[in-house]
Amino acid sequence: xxxxxxxxxxxxxxxxxxxxxxxxxxxxxxxxxxxxxxxxxxxxxxxxxxxxxxxxxxxxxxxxxxx
Length: 67
Description:
This protein is mostly beta strands. The chain has one helix at 19-25, and strands spanning 2-5, 8-11, 33-37, 40-42, 57-62. It has 1 helix and 5 strands; from the N terminus they run ββαβββ.
């Protein structure tokens, strides 16, 4: 399946079917991220329930500390 991740078209593995799968694929499980799926912010509890379709748009924002 192909989806847009932060504006770039990416090919996901066949087993990636939910937002949770995307989080796992990009090794973001232990990071503080905000994910927008087709212009809607997805709550973390809904990651396993939010299914993907070809050419969906996903924006992933993560926070970087600094000083």
